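Troubleshooting: if your tokenizer reports a length mismatch, compare your output against this known-good record of 302 residues.
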Amino acid sequence: MIVLNTDLNTLLQKLNISKTKMVEMYSSMSVDEIVEAEAAQGNQAAVEYATQLFTNVETLVEIFKLADPNNKFLILSTMTSEKLNKFLPLMEEEDLMQGLNFFTEDKLLAMMRELPPEQLVKTVFQMFSENEVIKLMPNDELDKFLTSTDIDKDNVLKHMQSIPPEYLAQIIETVTGNECQNMDSFDMVKQIGNFNPLQYKDALTSMQPTQKKQLTLNLAHEHPELYQLFSPEAYTNMIHAQKQKPDMVKALNVIEPEEKLKMLQELPNDLLSIVITQMDAKDFADTLINKFPEVLAEIIAG
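Known-good structure output:
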């Protein structure tokens, strides 16, 4: 049974019932019972009002005070997760975002790791610049990035030409064991490009950290989709070390609505109900009328 704080004064006015009659005959009755009793006595207003309770949004909001979050919560607290989830797509984005504050920081990070890569990258760039991302990226992630089959080798070699000659010479000497003599940057990059696959991989991974980060930044900046090659763990570890929960919640505003809904559906029912109480009262009433007539009937009968 759902017992709400009902606006009885409005009910008296709508049905033309005196306060005396209300006290003497209907004080212990539900709205449904009062309307039914008046209809049986020929009160035409009661007959019309009975129909409105199941069909008219304004009437429902008014009589059951659905602008009051507490009344909404009492209704929602009786519902299953499946029913609660049907309210979420109808809510304003701002209200949905507030719900993310109910998650712990660890849970937010875990859910970020499950985001589609492009959504995670969008979130990350709400908190960090490109320079910061590459600066904070672990060396093993940079190595995996540069040696990925998704990276165009010709493009890598093009950007390597901007590396100072002394560092290119160092790369070649590290891989071949031979000193570079009388070679300019173009020739050295050409030699690196002619390395066998294992040597080429060693050349990229043996670069000085500063040069490796700069090369990675140049490649990713030119083709932003390449930021998706970094692992979700690398990003969430970065966020965990550098940011606080409010930063994370604010950044998640850029993800697609369906991803927000997936996240909120992981809240326990009591917290999810609190989130939904922020829903516009008329939208809430309309949802009850059109999607949950059995719940509405229980409210009216309460």
